[in-house]
Amino acid sequence: MANYQETVQQSRTTTEQHSTWHAINPEYVARMRLQNRFKTGLDIARYNAAIMRRDMAEYDKDPANYTQSLGCWHGFVAQQKMIAIKKHHKTTDKRYIYLSGWMVAALRSEFGPLPDQSMHEKTAVSDLIEEIYTFLKQADARELDLLFTELDKARAAGDKAKEQDILQQIDNFQTHVVPIIADIDAGFGNAEATYLLAKKMIEAGACCIQIENQVSDEKQCGHQDGKVTVPHVDFLAKINAVRYAFMDLGVDDGVIVARTDSLGAGLTKQIAYSVTPGDLGDQYNSFLEGEEITDLSQIQSGDVIVNTNGKTIKPTRLPSNLFQFRKGTGFDRAVLDCVTSLKNGADLIWIETEKPHIGQIKEIVDKIREQVPNAKLVYNNSPSFNWTLNFRQQVFDAWQAAGKDVSAYDRTKLMSAEYDESDLAKEADDRIRTFQKDAAAQAGIFHHLITLPTYHTEALSIDTLAKGYFAESGMLAYVKNVQRQEIRNGIACVKHQNMAGSDIGDNHKEYFAGEAALKASGKDNTMNQFA
């Protein structure tokens, strides 16, 4: 943050050069400049890329320095998240925002709610990045505006100690603008399309882009069936396209997250191009399911024949014209994907798993680190997992393996509420509580995110409000469960006019028109009831 007094002096130097600018107050200019620290999305991208690089280096030194984010589908949601983080934790360090393609599809498409299959408008992603940063910058402006108001009050009261304290707070102000890890799905087309969209995302402020190795026009949610991967050369072309986009725009240290869906994907649309045995294409093809050809009579019309892994095979071809991988090869394919991506320009990896199990994640990452020792993982703490059931089953299995009596529990029914206060459930909850810390230390996870938390919290809070409001509780359902809780917990949004910028606007009116300004924040403003 620029020094307040220095910024005032710089503004004064400029205004004094113009004899007709006598109505322009240099201190007001300084305030507006500090409230608008980031002039462009590229300023934001460069600033946050440096933060992510610093955080990655700190994680390499100590895995306790892992980072976290929550998925946000609207600028207001992201703004309130960061305001809450600053209020409760006093710092935004190592707290990011995740922009989920799933939530863009489900909540931001002009087509209406869509499945996570890259059917939404491409620019809905970059538009949301810009929207989020607009709201985060407004959070900066609002908080600084409150400090400026307090500064004026301290000066009017002649309280020099208070004045110096507020000036120090202004000079040490920490922005709400934090890195966004932005989901570009499978690139929305060919590599040129990926490059063009990546540029739009970076221009909007993205310092980190996540891309996955699925076929763009067959893209599926990572937690659904029917996923189809592409040969490595196709995926690397898109990683290169994203890197070119970063460098084209002067964000040379932009971060790329390469996601593999191979652990759960059993299909490919293409046979990989191969020149020599053991090359990358041959390694990809070696995982194909197929019938070994020992006689030319085995070949039928339309069959595709591949020589791989020392054998000539007829790959299993489905009516969809897709080819099938051998069952049980997902682990090895995921490892090869990650190693290949990290050796060819990606900075971080994302392995989409079917359950939150530290042992499984660690096994994969350990294998990757045999070839890339500093490999770091972005991990989806997905709401698609039944966390309660998964961890109760993990504890059940651990207890059983240790010879502990588990006869009081039915493993198939551990989700039942009857177990909620049991010792098993308590240990499972404790493992969930420490999952991120433990996985960061043991399984190379640099960044923990939850893709859809605000989607679910919105649904739950509306259900609670609607249940009471449209029944006998009436207004009490809102007052008791919403407004009173906002007041008790110091939620700034209880003064929603202020949150929307009314007080900033009033101050600007005074900058522009002096005593002639028509302001909204007088004695008859009902927001004063919440002072």
Automatic annotation (TrEMBL):
Cofactors: Mg(2+)
Keywords: Lyase, Magnesium, Metal-binding
GO molecular function: isocitrate lyase activity; metal ion binding
Residue sites binding substrate per the record: S100, G101, W102, G222, H223, R259, N380, N381, S382, P383, S384, T451
Residues annotated to bind Mg(2+): D183
Catalytic residue positions: C221
Cofactor note: Can also use Mn(2+) ion.
Keyword check for Lyase: yes
Biological process terms in GO annotation: carboxylic acid metabolic process
Protein name per the record: Isocitrate lyase
